[in-house]
Amino acid sequence: MEQKQFQAESKRMLDLMIHSIYTHKEIFLRELISNASDAIDKLYFRSLTDSSVGMKREDFRIEIRADKDARTLTITDNGIGMTAEELEQNLGVIAHSGSRAFKTENTLDENTEIIGQFGVGFYSAFMVAKRVTVRTKAFDSDTAYEWQSEGVEGYTIDTCEKDTAGTEIVLELLDDTDDEKYSEYLEEFRIRQLVKKYSDYIRFPVQMEIERTQNKEGSETETETVREMATLNSMTPMWKKNKTELTEDDYTNFYQEKYFDYTAPLLHIHNRSEGTVTYNSLLYVPARAPYDYYTKDFEKGLTLYANGVMIMEKCGDLLPDHFSFVRGLVDSEDLSLNISREMLQHDRQLKLIAKSLEKSIKNELAKLLKTDREKYNAFWKAFGIQIKFGVYNGFGANKELLQDLLMFHSSGCDDAEGFTTLAEYVSRMREEQKYIYYAAGESVARCAALPAAELVRDKGFEVLYLTENVDEFAIQMLAKYQDKEFKNVSAGDLGLESDEDKTALEEKNNAAKDLFEEMQKALNGKVKAVRLSGRLKNHAVCLSSDGNLSLEMEKVLNTMPTGEKVQAERVLELNPEHPVFAKLQQLYADDKDKLAQYADLLYQQALLIEGMPVEDPVALSKMICDLMVQ
Ligand code: ADP
After folding, report:
1. Which residues are CB-contacts of 489 (< 8 A; sequence separation ≥ 6)?
2. Count of the separate structural domains present in the chain
3. Which of 59, 180, 299, 516 could connect to 530 by a Cys-Cys bridge, CB 3.0–4.6 Å?
4. Residue 122: CB within 6 Å of ligand 1?
């Protein structure tokens, strides 16, 4: 019999598959079952219009047989089968439709990755088998054919005996090695596991003959072994069921089994979409962040099914980073199993699905915020940071989408643990209030104690307390909410003073100009300016910043391991009503050395109030002690 050659490209492909890492190899079964299911689909559809097929839906099945003595695994279907030409065409060129993706000069590693994620159809059989035999008879044909191959060397086609239409694929498994135990694929538990994992939702039964021990009829003690057919897949995916058929428990159980999380999810989102792309999706928002969520090891993604067949365990493209905590799956009829089409064509469809999932997640979270504040608080504690990063990242590209999901601590909340949304803040704003005020610091208590925060509160205005590193970055990215500007209580003009107050302050500042220059000189470049401020009520001094970089942001940026150190434009602000100011004026006239010392002391106090480190604590302490004994 003539041995036919595979195409050159196919040889390379086979080579890649054979060297694929072991954990990827198990997908061969998914590929073969999926082909079988497609073939059955074709004959089943034909049966609907052609009575000569003579089969009903329940007659169709896929059967798996393991023969441990012969070391063979056989997958049989009673689908449409193949003619000689089809055999030649379909199996003569390895992954004839999938090979394009492999033409590029990818490295072996990248390619084996791809194999693991997408599979490459029929030829994945060679990842576990040394010889593959396909016996097939096309519906409507009298002749059956046998195709056989041992891999790269090529293949043979011959006629054979087969009574009924359909295809039988026999894999002679590779010999076990120290690392790779191919005989595993002959074990019932392993086959069950693989069917459950990858092919649970194939619409036709995947069956296997199993042995079961039972008591002999009429006997309490004697047992016998019976053989019976067991169906390994559940056939209807939960996400394709009607929502009304499912209980809260069904959703929770499914989540807990699939994601090994013993806590119930906060939210499930079960949708069917029939717009430009048709898909079912079942998404969950977990109640807590996985232990690795905020590390670089965490991998976002949803499980992707093409018509009930899992093609990718974690498809990252389906989830934007700001919703990376979402778990779940998408099943689309518009996707095919085929690798090259996956990667190239389906890109657009994946994007469409991702866009619509994003919208639906946002809407459900917004709904939760309205209807169940307690749950939303739990969500916020687990994943709020991620949403805030989402506002900041991408130069604020997603801020519109996310801004109404944001929550912050606030002086308007009843307890320190409480959160307010921006909409709630704005709804409480006083008529004369121009800005949304915020104070940034490491804790609510710290923010609340800032002198400037006290002043704003005294005016009857609410102050947001930003306690996470990312907060102020997100707020600055927003810049405004409902046309109200954000204002850091520690920076710039707070808009609290009347025009007369402002003019009066300016006059005082002008009058003390020389004093402030002297103090700034003494501080030796540490501050950009010294000035009087309306920001202080009881305190003598505080530090503020000019420009967009606040003191809090400076702190955050300087804790980053990479990047250059930054410094906010610091301004030392003095309270014109405080006796210290009068003292400084007196020293300017009498004792410039002491003035320099006091300038330094005030600056260091201001640092402490801001929660920033003083440069030389020992020197500071000495200076205070010296003053105490004077
Ligand atoms: P794909 O399924 O992605 O097209 P495969 O390499 O898995 O690529 O299969 C190639 C072709 O071989 C299929 O498109 C199908 O026409 C045919 N084929 C594979 N398995 C079967 C089967 N069990 N019954 C009938 N045809 C099959």
Report:
1. 437, 438, 439, 450, 452, 453, 455, 456, 463, 535
2. 4
3. 516
4. yes
Burial 98-131 (b: 16+ CB within 10 A, else e): bbebbeeeeeeeebbebbbbbbbbbbbbbbbbeb
Q: What is the pTM of this model?
A: 0.69
| Domain shared by 20 and 107, yes or no | yes
Domain holding 126, by residue range, is 8-231
How many angstroms does the Cα of residue 595 sit away from the middle of ligand 1? 89
CATH of the domain at 225: 3.30.565.10
Are 502 and 489 within one domain?
Answer: no
Query: Which pLDDT score, from 0 to 100, does residue 22 have?
Result: 54
| Ligand 1 centroid distance, CA of 364 (Å) | 41
Kindly state if the Cβ of 509 falls inside 6 Å of ligand 1.
no
567 and 604 belong to one structural domain: yes
DSSP state of 372: -
32 CA to centre of ligand 1 in angstroms: 8
- Residue 35 near ligand 1, beta carbon < 6 Å: yes
Query: What would the mean pLDDT of 523-528 be, rounded to a whole number?
Result: 91
- The answer to whether residues 358 and 479 belong to one domain is no
**Pair (110, 97) in one structural domain:** yes
pLDDT reported for residue 525:
87
